[in-house]
Amino acid sequence: MNFRIKILDLVRKTNQNNLYNSFIENQFKKTEDSIIAYQNNAKEKILQHHIKHNKNYREWLISKGIDLTKKIEFDEIPIINKKDLLVIHPFIEKFIHQIYHTGGTTGTPFKYSLSRESVSSLWPNLWRAFNTCGIKPCTPIIMIAGPSLYNNRSIPRKIFDWINRFTVISAFDLNTDKLQNTYDIIKQKNIKGIYGYTSAILIFLRHLEKNNLYLDLRGIFSTSETFIPKIRTLAKTYCNCDVFDIYGANDGGICAFECQEHNGYHISYERTYVEIIAHKIILTDLTNLSFPFIRYEVGDVSNSNEIIYEKCKCGSSLPKISSISGRVNSYITDSNGNRIHTEFFSHLFNKDETIIQFQVSEKFNIINVNIISDKEDIKYYQTKYNDAFNKRFIKKIGISVNSRIYKNGNEKTPIFIKLD
After folding, report:
1. pLDDT tens, position by position, 226-254
2. I need a labelling partner for 415 at 20 to 30 A (CA). Which of 4, 54, 271, 367 fits?
3. What SUPFAM superfamilies does this protein map onto (predicted)?
């Protein structure tokens, strides 16, 4: 294992081996007080670094009324978002280790950079998440990836995958042949885990169910989309393993993951300081010397308004976010102007085992809930849920069963999509 990570470090000029070892140790040995002290020191250091070295960010702070001649409390720093960063272009060239381009869930093109320190932390934090079910670094894994990863099949990327023992499958067009090929690859290569889009994992698991196929995996890791509870049941039956949801945002530096308790997302506190303000998730990348993700509004929301610091039953001391509800734009505007989060539907459908997946769409001011189910009975769902819809919404909510599930351009499946 270690020799592979050392090769990766040599190729990428990173420090992943040492970081992974320290991250594994930190999650069980660090105390709440030591974690808070570390983050208080780190967030002050990264702020002062960018005030000193980042001219564009410094000028932006001044434009927001921050007096840099006085001592600044961290919570006085204005929250910054993607639009702000696109305007002020706050790169520090000498600290750039890697450039990233993303449209993200918003579809807005966004270019940012990571310093060597942030790049080094990326995979060790994911490896720590994989370690939840005993998957060590460079264990054979299949990744069901979107275009940001799958389309970047450069020679260096292929070498990286080979060393890391990743097999990458496109999340596009998961037809029967591709799904069966994925199953065959898992068997042939002795794959131990799956990491990919939640909806793509669901499609694969339903292929196993339909064809009565079984695997013996250590774990499945879903990411990038709202979690679908049905995949946990299917995984236990057809893959003999649990499913762990991962919340990640490279812009902002967060990797947060479920443990066996499934009662929150453990935060990679070494790289990321997390605040939740009015349910919005605010991130500070504590290690990025090249680009100021400082009090950055990433665009995701949580049901809770606080970070949990008490030790988890799994033994980990890592702080937790209790839940990830989705994107800030996952709201439906009712006829009276009230904004209702799509989490309403998640709670409503949570215990209905007949519902495999659902998607809410809006077209020409008409709301429809498309339910994916083996129970092809639209009257059943209308009878069961219309009263709840009518109590919560002024707008009429329509129901369809097993209609088309829409995807964004990045092949992610949003829980709510506007079609007009």
Report:
1. 888 899 999 999 999 999 999 999 999 99
2. 271
3. Acetyl-CoA synthetase-like
Backbone angles phi, psi at 269, to 5 degrees: -65, -25
The domain defined by 2-324 carries CATH number 3.40.50.12780: yes
Please tell me what DSSP assigns to residue 406: P
* Of 154, 240, 141, the residue nearest 185 (C-alpha): 141
DSSP per residue, 353-394? TTEEEEEEEEETTEEEEEEEES---HHHHHHHHHHHHHHH-S
Burial-class residue 408 by CB neighbours within 10 Å (0-12, 13-18, 19+).
middle
Residue 377: phi and psi, rounded to 5, are -140, 90
In this predicted model, which residue has the larger pLDDT, 402 or 149?
Answer: 402
Distance CA 384, CA 230 (A): 19
Residue type, 217: L
* Mean pLDDT, range 173-184, rounded to an integer: 88
Dihedrals phi, psi of 24, to nearest 5 degrees: -65, -40
Distance in angstroms (rounded) separating the CA atoms of residues 177 and 157: 26
CB 289 within 8 A of CB 113: no
How far apart (Å, rounded) are the C-alpha atoms in residues 286 and 272? Answer: 6
pLDDT tens for each residue of 13-67: 788 888 999 999 999 999 999 999 999 999 999 999 999 999 999 999 999 999 9
Q: State both tokens at 272.
A: 């990321």
Up-side HSE of residue 225: CA atoms within 13 Å toward CB? 30
| Identity of the residue numbered 211 | N
Strand-pairing partners, residue 301, are 280, 326
Please name the residue that has the structure tokens 């762990």: 244
Question: What are the extents of the domains in the chain?
Answer: 2-324, 330-418
Say if residues 21 and 125 touch (Cβ distance below 8 Å).
no
Q: How much is the pTM?
A: 0.83
Question: In whole angstroms, what is the distance from residue 68 CA to residue 213 CA?
Answer: 63
pLDDT (tens digit per residue) in 251-284: 999 999 999 999 999 999 999 999 999 999 999 9
The topology under which CATH files domain 330-418 is: GMP Synthetase; Chain A, domain 3 (3.30.300)
Query: Which tokens go with 266?
Result: 């453990």
List for the chain the helix, strand, coil content (%; round to 5).
Answer: 40, 25, 40
Query: Which is nearest to 194 in space by CA: 213, 167, 175?
Result: 167
